[in-house]
Amino acid sequence: MFYPYGFGFGSHWLLYIGVPLIIGIWAQIRVSSAFRKWGEVRASSNITGAECAREILEAAQIHDVDVVETNDFLGDHYDPTSKKLCLSSNVYNTPSVAALGIAAHETGHAIQHAKAYAPLKARMAIVPVTMIASQMLPFVIFGGLFFRITGLITLGIYCYLILLVFQLITLPVEFDASRRAKIILQQMGIVQPGGEMAGVNKVLNAAALTYVAAFIAALGNLLWLLSLRDRR
User: Fold this and answer.
1) Is-contact 45 87, C-beta < 8 A?
2) Which of 186, 27, 181 is nearest to 106 (CA)?
3) Long-range contact pairs involving 3-7 (C-beta distance under 8 Å, separation at least 24)
4) Spatial distance between the Cα atoms of 181 and 61, rounded to a whole number of angstroms
5) pLDDT of residue 147
6) What is the distance between the alpha carbons of residues 159 and 64, in angstroms, rounded to a whole number?
7) Is-contact 92 69, C-beta < 8 A?
8) Does 196 qualify as catalytic in the annotation?
9) CA 203, CA 225: separation in Å to the nearest integer?
10) Residue-wise pLDDT tens digits, 128-148
11) What ranges do the domains of the chain cover?
12) CB 210: neighbour CB atoms within 10 A?
């Protein structure tokens, strides 16, 4: 997320930019802390994240999704365009409670895709325009603030509006994937009720906060630019 500093400071900046930034940092700390704690707890099923993902895909009769390893820490994601379920090394190779929760969550996205889950389809449809808006933002905001071109600030508003819509659509997609993961892990006996399931809940609930924080950040940036335009 692009945060321009040095312009338009004051109560508006603190409210619209500072507060979302603090929330975002707090959410990331929560995720890292939960993953670190439950990443050290071995699940009783003793299967790795990769094995968990493949078992869930097999049970869901999804045979066209590849489970692959990526070196990005907490870079786990499902790519619907290539039908690849990418798991970070700490998830792919580890039989921990945290690894199973994250693997099941990402597999939940593959199940959404197979079932044509409407919010996921909407998010996939808006990805191209979202990428364009993200790439334009630094130049638009920089030009608008340094050269005081109101038209560029207005364009930045539209860019953040696109990002806000994307983040809004992302919320039900991520919450639903976590809901599916929690149900599947218990139904298949991959994690045990009690401590293990509590660990999965803490990891996935912490991860959900990052998506809420991203939405709040996009909203804050949008409101800040609107306040700048109105003052000019």
Assistant:
1) no
2) 181
3) 3/221, 4/141, 4/142, 4/145, 7/145, 7/228
4) 16
5) 63
6) 35
7) yes
8) no
9) 34
10) 999 999 998 888 777 666 666
11) 11-231
12) 18
Minimal CA–CA distance to 229: which of 6, 80, 1, 8?
8
Burial label, 189 (beta-carbon count in 10 A; 0-12, 13-18, 19+): exposed
Q: What is the pTM of this model?
A: 0.87
CA neighbor of 135 nearest in space, from 158, 152, 159:
159
| Percent of the chain whose pLDDT exceeds 90 | 69
Dihedral, CA atoms, 113, 115, 119, 124, nearest 10 degrees? 30
In the chain, what are the helix, strand and coil shares in percent, each to the nearest 5?
70, 5, 20
- The structure tokens listed for 115 are 């079932």
The answer to whether the beta carbons of residues 49 and 99 sit under 8 Å apart is yes
d(CA 23, CA 41): 28
**Distance from C-alpha of 29 to C-alpha of 200, rounded to nearest angstrom:** 17
pLDDT for 223 equals 87
Residue type, 50: A
Determine which one of 51, 55, 106, 174 is catalytic: 106
- CA–CA separation, 94 and 105 (whole Å): 15
